[in-house]
Design a protein that fits this description.
It is a single chain. The chain is an alpha+beta fold. The protein has two domains: 159 residues, Four Helix Bundle (Hemerythrin (Met), subunit A); 243 residues, paralog of FGE (formylglycine-generating enzyme). It has eleven helices and twelve strands. The protein has a four-stranded mixed sheet with strand order 10-9-8-11. α2 runs parallel beside α6.
Amino acid sequence: MSPSDTMSPAQSLADDLAESRARTLNLIHPFDDGVLRGQHDPLMSPMVWDVAHVANYEDQWLVRALGGATILEGIDDIYDAFTHRRAGRGALLMLTPAEARAYGETVRAHALEHLAAADLHPDSATALLRRGFVYDMVVKHEHQHAETILASIQLLPSAEARRLQSVVSPAGVAPGGAEVRVPAGSFMMGSGDPCSYDNERPRRVVHLPAFWIDTTPVTNGDYEAFIVDGGYQSERWWLPAGWAWRQETAAVAPQFWERDGHGWQRWRFGQVDRLRAAEPVQHVCWYEADAYARWAGRRLPTEAEWEKAATGVSADPAHANVGQRHLGPAEVGAYPAGVSSYGAHQMLGDVWEWTATDFRLYPGFVAFPYPEYSEVFNDGGYKVLRGGSWATHPRAVSVTFRNWDWPMRRQIFAGFRCARDDV
């Protein structure tokens, strides 16, 4: 019997909390206070804001929501993501890095005291505690901000960004066939896990006609062919909003790509390297993904198609490039053990995948535990991404997890795959 077989639910959650905090602190450790406090790009918060924000979130949900007193007065407004847009957070009177760390330590001590006495049973009188829901939510939240911090580090000047180190991702073996067919039929869409997010529920039957979907994400080599064929210069492939974005930004390639005398190279955490043709393309926005799909005579999959095609996939690190083991995607075909029931590779990990679907709440949606997580985004302006990336912790992603962002966002670790009707 392994230690995990005899570990209490409370101890398991305490270990998860410790792991998520260690990841955050390890990420910021190489950087001095000036870097941590700096607003390096209007799209991203100062990293120290994220550090204090996760502590404040834990203060609110693992201390105050469970009956404890406020740890530090007067800072809730500063760390409210809905009150202050990212571009203006650098001007806030934030905690210093040392103060943010100390605040996190104090909050954690109080949170663990509450955890030791918490009723985590499925029928607990406190809905937040049932099956440890609120602890799971806080763990996932901190892992999500670790991915956000990684996106901030990618935008740092090269001398600072190259402080991160990782092992090279594995080479891939080209899977057989460029696409797989998903037959017509019904499937259960959404999550039945009581610890899933409110926007993943309720689970329901969805019927889809047959369709084809790419076996792997679109690669750098695939995308370079679009560039060479004048994809960024031809309005015919772009939706009007996408063409307006392309003209406004003067984009000619994915973010962090640049041309030299021998072709394309890319910047990643302060290092410049030749493109790996077999690696999934990364740092493309929804407009670019949609334009590529039109150029290729295909389309982006709907959210439902993506989820059905991903049936049978798990975020087990042996089956997917997740958890920040590598600082980028692995070549396509690198994780054959993680193939879906329909034969699609790398549906989880490597790159978030844009879908054709606007973010909307499922029929029968009930907000829990607060409307600002999902409900306030239900306006049709955001596009759904699925599958997680190499930077996503396995605890924070599944085949039912829904991410969303504005269609012009490129700093996130996003790519895509294409689909087509079965005709």
